[in-house]
Amino acid sequence: MDIREITIDRASVDDGRWIGKEDIPALQDIRIKVRGFTGCKAVREAHAARERGLPAEQVGADGKPNAEGLDALGRALIADLLVDVDGLTDGDKKLKAEDVARLAAIPENGRLVGWIEHAARIVDATTIARREALAKN
After folding, report:
1. Cβ contact 105:94 at 8 Å
2. Which residues contact 85 (CB under 8 A, 6 or more apart)?
3. Which tens digits make up the pLDDT trace of 82-130?
4. Which of 27-36, 47-56, 62-71, 127-136 shows the lowest mean pLDDT across its residues?
5. What is the DSSP-derived secondary structure letter of residue 91?
6. CA nearest 30: which of 82, 106, 107, 102?
């Protein structure tokens, strides 16, 4: 076995990688570029800083985020993960990553949030060999 088949591709995790229907069939013609969910240091640091900075009304007696705080952290996390989007529209308007991050805060768009989170986990597991194979296509 080649070491590249098991070595995580740090560039994909930190800078993002395009995920499409090859990885998540439900995306159909949508492609999303996301950073790693747990492997990206910048995402983890931003999330930790936001958690420390939550207002008192979003923190429970145990010092952990309450439901309102978790919602706020989740919305911010999607914005940190999402780098770019292609093939997603609102009517005739082509949506940008900022639009998608804003729309992800709407509960009815939970499927979109799920795709972004799933894609980020795929990116976390991207190996160097997988990135090289994708680059050949």
Report:
1. no
2. 30, 31, 32, 33, 95, 96, 97, 100
3. 999 999 999 999 999 999 999 988 889 989 999 999 999 999 998 888 8
4. 127-136
5. T
6. 82
